[in-house]
Amino acid sequence: MTQNFLELSQLYRDTLLNNIIPFWMQHSIDHANGGYFTCLDRQGQVYDTDKFIWLQNRQVWMFSTFYNQIEKNPKWLQVAKHGADFLAQHGRDANGDWYFSLDRTGQPLIQPYNIFSDCFAAMAFSQYAAASGQESAKEIALHAYQNVLRRQDNPKGKYTKAYPGTRPLKSLAVPMILANLTLEMSWLLSPAELDRVLTATVKEVMQDFRDPEQGYMREAVGLQGQRVDCYEGRLLNPGHGIEAMWFMMDIAQRQGNRELLLQAVEVVIKTLEFAWDKEYGGIYYFMDDGGHPPQQLEWDQKLWWVHVETLVALAMGYRLTGDQRCWEWYQRIHEYTWSHFADSEQGEWFGYLNRRGEVLLNLKGGKWKGCFHVPRAMLLCWREFEKLSAL
Hints:
By secondary structure, this protein is mainly α. The protein has helices at 5-27, 53-69, 74-90, 116-132, 135-151, 173-184, 191-209, 231-234, 238-255, 258-275, 304-321, 324-340, 373-389, and strands at residues 39-40, 46-48, 51-52, 101-102, 108-110, 169-171, 220-222, 235-236, 287-288, 302-303, 352-353, 359-361. It contains 13 helices and twelve strands.
């Protein structure tokens, strides 16, 4: 790869501003009912009108972030408001818990069975409050954040399917997202609460979920952080582990914690060494740490978010440490990601490839893919390479 850091910064910047943002502004807005369509085919045509709360909140967060961090573009703020107003009216039940999905008009379809809707609501309304100055948005953000703290030890509550007590496990997803969410909420939290939550989440992620021998992150462990020999206990989700590590790098950078920073970089490298498909290229979606067949039948697919989050982690890791392994892996992941996921004909990026790297689903958005991972990665990589070019 011959691009220098400035050229890479411009690549991410131009792709975000001239390709990704226009795609979502043109195709995703539900002008009749409020909120956004996320089920978009390759050309951006709507193929399903259900509205998934965490994708709705992610898009509010994303356009609020554009407004706050790139420029005070009133069109971006209007897109954020369009979603925030819809969510404030329809997104929660009587207890203030956030549903999983709504129909097009805002009627609830699926109960608030998981706290990740609340996580992204807190992120969205925190960023939107900063953009709009609305006190009501601050209140919504803080209420959702307290929901997450209240439910973190039992994320699904009455909706859990697990039988209590037989094999209690905890998931990496909860502390990793709480770490990132708390940074997002930092301007609304007291210094004491910010320090308390960050300290606890960093400790849990790095001590309980990091395998001390192999160096990668486990997806689920026992309540004391022990490995459990079952499907869930052997499961590795490389994308989750790597995304969690750039959250750790972000915290380490803010705290001046060099030890945490180096640990996070090491996890990224160890994960890639284990999870890179040496035959076809790309990063596996799921793996079993014992080499057994994973229970997820889609284990060998190559997914967009796994690869773009890896680009962020490697660019950040290289800038903060200068570790040459980050740059070498960055070049490999960049070549694969940009040549396989970017759609040069219709805009935006494909989400799902088969193991060989062929497009499996040519959608641009759906139940799980929305306006989040690609634009966030574009913004973050733009800024990382901008900083690297200035060194």
